[in-house]
Give the backbone structure.
Amino acid sequence: MSLEPLHDFTNAIHGLMLGALIGAFIAPGLLRRLSEHRFERLLGLLLLEVAAVLIAEAFFPTMPLHLVDPTSVAGTAAGVVFGAVIGAVAALMGVAGGEFLIPTLIIVFGADATTAGTASLAISVVAVTAGLVRYGRMHLLPTCGELRRIALPMGAASIVGAVPGALLAAPAPETSLKLVLAAVLVASAVRTGRGKR
């Protein structure tokens, strides 16, 4: 898989990285002030809205969803704004943010699903690192025992799944990738809504 398709989205990716860094670093400080129930409801609705747009775009691919030129200064600025929101939500959820980064790259910047997925991996590293540093300074990271019991097996499984996933992404039909992503978002929204029930 070549990284060449990312060149057209360099400005947008840099903006998303900077925004994700800012959002992921600030968000944990808001964690104690935030109503968990309200946050989960808003998050679930947001996931469903993004899923609906992706489903519509999959069945009606001529929809004009390329909202911002990713090579322009406006593309960088939009990346910072979207990245800050995504980084904040990702840090509060404890995820990498790909659920929002991929749809943002597709809908806002006009990337195809494969390019968006590749770019989101690089951006997620920044968001996750910033969140870890911030949570570490707040002494909210799990213990070494918890990391060994939960994080190591999940990390190993992610590596095993990432290799075939990357190989299958390139030849997979664009419509199928969007529908699969939309299904993941719907499942995430349902799971978020049932979190405390």
